[in-house]
Every structure is written in structure tokens, then in C-alpha cells.
What we know:
FAD/NAD(P)-binding domain, nine-stranded mixed beta sheet, eight-stranded mixed beta sheet, 20 strands
Amino acid sequence: MTQGNHSDILIMGAGPAGLSLALALARHGLSVRVIDRITPDTLADTAFDGRASALASTSWQMLQNLGLADSLWRDACPIDRIAVSDGLRKGSLDFDAGVDGMGVMLPNSLLRSALYQAARDDADIDLVMAADIAHRSVDAHRATVILADGREFTASLTVGAEGRASPTRDLAGIGLSQWSYRQRGIVTAVTMERGHQNTAFEIFYPDGPLAILPLNDDDEGRPMASIVWTVPEGKADAWTSLSDRAFGAALTEASGGFLGQITPVAPRSSWPLTLCQASDMVAPRIALVGDSAHIIHPIAGQGLNLGLRDVAALADVLGEGARLGLDPGDLAQLQRYQQWRMLDNTMMASATDVLNRLYGLPGKAPSLVRRIGMQLVGRTGLIRRFIIDEARGTSGDLPELLMASD
């Protein structure tokens, strides 16, 4: 339980990374306070807004270990297979994890609400919502946050989980390497005439990939999917301003019609696509997780999963430190977290960047090279296994929170 205005950990940001970290740290007996401008009503709202996330197998395991999976399972759609194609040309590269599955698709609103309710009910977590911050500071002994209403909170460690525009990262003086893809991601949800068979489809075009990701059937039994369509910046406004009928027709054409007629059933949203990488993930009494530390292209749907792997690793490090009686803000243990996570984050950023650039090359010659490469991958068991393990999040040194309990 937090002692007055002081806590062990101060988490800035109540998104999935911030709230899951709070729950993970509370399991280790650490006192946690979460501060965000968002309102409790927004966090608790379960209305579907068209946005959904692909949770890798290990991310879903993390929700199971946090005690949330049972309440979410009914609304989670398993991803059993991934099918990759170069436009509408014949031949696709299929990845099938067998009985283990690749992961699940889950509406963002349900994930957010479940995390919020679990954090709200945890005695070791204090949620300070609808809060405007007037001042932040860090010294050798503590991190301090003063709200606009005069309340002052301190902690041994502050964690930046605010997203790409992270004031905590700026407070630490951590640099950010970034560039724009000059693309936008358009997101919505659709119904289809034909079922998706729990398959995630990734269709690559020179302008950008079209991802059709499986969701559970709607209340009328119609197959549903989440759409993430990457388009050039200059064409984004035209695509988002289309009527639902015209946008559905464009999706049907871009998918080659193999799912039948596609009909949008949710609002469309879009965001600029950038690659961002913080130069460090830690500083004295400061750590970064999720989008505050890195943002990658959505081409592989791994952004949220990378953030949850940050959370699991930081929880492991701080939990072990707590058992040894270490100060949560001890820089030596924070650097262990950074060493654990930096390579994975950098490799995933590089892989998604290369994929986007490779499939963005127009013309017959690049297409031929891509198809030959896809055939080689399809015939090489070790490469296929590596890609499947990366998609499931099971490669590398896994934190305890991502592994099945004995």
C-alpha cells in the first residue's frame, strides 16, 4: 500500500503498458501509483470503437498470469495462422503454429477496461486519473510530481508509459531517433461474406500493406475482422473521406474478393507512421516502457507486444530487487533491464523497417525477388520456425510473467 504521498513506483500513463506494469509490480509487493489525464469513465468504457490489437501468445500468457484472461477469453479471437502474399499474385507464405496458436485478437476497449478494473481493485495500486501535471523533477533520492491542483507525489522510481510524446523521457534528457514513413495507418472493423478461419492476412502492395485480422463473429453471426491499411500520407485524406460503401468496395477489391464483399461497421481512424527509438531506456530514477521507448511500423502487429515484453522484463528486475532489498531507483538494476530489452526492440524495429521498404519497391524485378524469397522461407524449416517463434513472442530469454505457470 502507498504510504501517504510516497510510493515505490510512480507510473506516468494508464495505457495497457502502464496498467499492466502496475499489476505486475503489485504482485511483487511494491506500492504503485499511476497518474494520467484520462478519465475513469473513458478507461471503463467497453464500447467497441473499431480498434483491436494482436496479442502474441506470450502476451496472452501474461494476461493469464495477471488473472485477466478468463474474463477476456470470450471476446478474444484466436489467431491460428498467418498468410502473407505479394499483392494478389498467386502463392502465399503461410505460417501455422499448430495447436499452440499464434495469439489472439482483442478489442482495445475490452483490454483497457479489464486492466483498469483490476488495477482499481488492487490495494497496492493508487490510480490518480483526470490529473493535470504542473511540475516534474528527479533528484538523487526521489522522483517528484506536482499536480495542477497542488497535490504532490514522490516515488523511488518513475516510469514513463505515456506514449510517443513522453514528458518523462524528456525529463530524463533521453534522446530520440525518429523518422517518418510518410504513410498513415487506417484502422476500422468490417464484416465479410466469408469466414476468415482464424487467419491473419497480410497483403503487401507498393503503397503499403493491407492487414485483415480475425475478430469474433458479430451478434448476427457475420464474420468480422480488424483492418489496418497502410497508405501514403498524400492519399490518406482521400481514403478516410470515402463513404463506407466506397471504402468497403475498395477493401473488397484490394483483398481480391476471397472473403467476399467487405462492409465497414465501425468508425475509421488513422495515425501517422513513424519509427522511433530512444537512445536509452533508463536514467537515474527513471525507466521507459512501450511507446515511450520505441515505436515501430505496424507491418507485423508487434508494437503492443514489444511494450508488454518491456513490462514483463522490468517487473522481473524490480521484483528481484525488492526481494534483495534494493532501492527501486537503483541505476545498476535499471541498466540490467535496459540490456535485457534493447536488443529485442532494436531488432524488431529493424526487421519491420526492412520489410516495409522491401515490399514498397514497385516493379516486376523486386516482385520476383520477393516471391523467390518467400518460396525459400516456405521450404526452410528453421527459418519458418524462427519467424513463428518471433510472431508468438517465444524466442529469447523470457521474463517470468510471459511463461506458463507450473
